[in-house]
Design a protein that fits this description.
6-stranded mixed β-sheet; 8 helices; 8 strands
């Protein structure tokens, strides 16, 4: 990423340490705030809180409808919350009974878990993005990185298409839904990335062995949880709550 930015002529500012509460994301946001103040006329698109991001994904929802017709379940990784909110809002205009299933990372705060170390990138967060449409989700899964690695590699080996952390995690959840849903349920899963950026992580045996990501016993089913307490295994809940209180109470599927 740093090499790509340098190729475009950008000056790369590296944040030296994580924020004690908000981790690397909050540390980066604090640095951006300082840079904006230092450079009058500069601008930050603010991917975590920019309300225009969701609207930019309406075309993805329209594309799903055009190619698949009715969709019963949409499975999306959740990072900033933009693509799940925007695509599902458009999809639900055409399929009012469609359900949205979110895929988060263990150690992520988005759906109320305490912040913890996270290997996976592209999903999960150490802060609470305002783009997340909590009311839209009927179910949320927290996936571990070893499961994401196994799924990404399995996709590459058998389906000839794959991606990184978020693709693997979404594949895990969509596969489980396909196995457990009634015959005929139409499930769409959004794969947001390609494998090129993950040659040194997801597809690197040395990295995966060093982080205990391969050769582990893999669960076939998620644990059912209420969403409270620290989660360290693949788990799911149908009680989706907004941890910062913009949605009162909880929604039970």
């Amino acid at each position: 990423m740093r090499s790509m930015l340098a190729a475009y002529g950008a000056t790369v500012v590296v944040v030296p340490a994580p924020h004690p509460v908000g981790g690397w994301q909050q540390a980066r946001r604090d640095t951006v705030t300082e840079l904006l103040a230092r450079h009058p006329g500069s601008w930050c698109p603010d991917q975590y809180h920019n309300p225009d991001i969701a609207g930019g994904y309406a075309e993805l929802g329209a594309e799903l409808v055009a190619q698949l017709g009715a969709v019963d379940v949409l499975v999306c990784a959740v990072g900033t919350g933009g693509h799940s909110a925007g695509a599902f809002a458009e999809l639900r205009r055409h399929s009012p009974t469609a359900r949205l299933v979110g895929v988060d990372s263990v150690g992520s705060t988005i759906f109320g878990q305490p912040a913890g170390p996270r290997l996976m990138r592209g999903l999960g967060s150490s802060i609470h993005p305002r783009n997340v449409d909590y009311a839209a989700f009927s179910e949320v899964h927290w996936v571990t990185p070893d499961l994401a690695v196994a799924a990404s590699r399995r996709l590459a080996r058998h389906r000839y298409t794959t991606g990184g952390w978020s693709v693997g995690a979404v594949c895990v959840v969509a596969g489980w839904l396909a196995r457990t849903s009634p015959v005929g349920t139409r499930i769409a899963a959004v794969f947001c990335d390609a494998p090129a950026r993950y040659a040194d992580t997801v597809f690197n045996d040395e990295y995966c062995r060093a982080n205990n990501l391969i050769g582990q016993s893999m669960p076939e089913e998620p644990d059912d949880v209420t969403g409270t307490g620290e989660i360290t295994r693949w788990s799911r809940t149908t009680r989706v709550t907004d941890p910062v209180g913009s949605v009162e109470g909880s929604l039970t599927a």
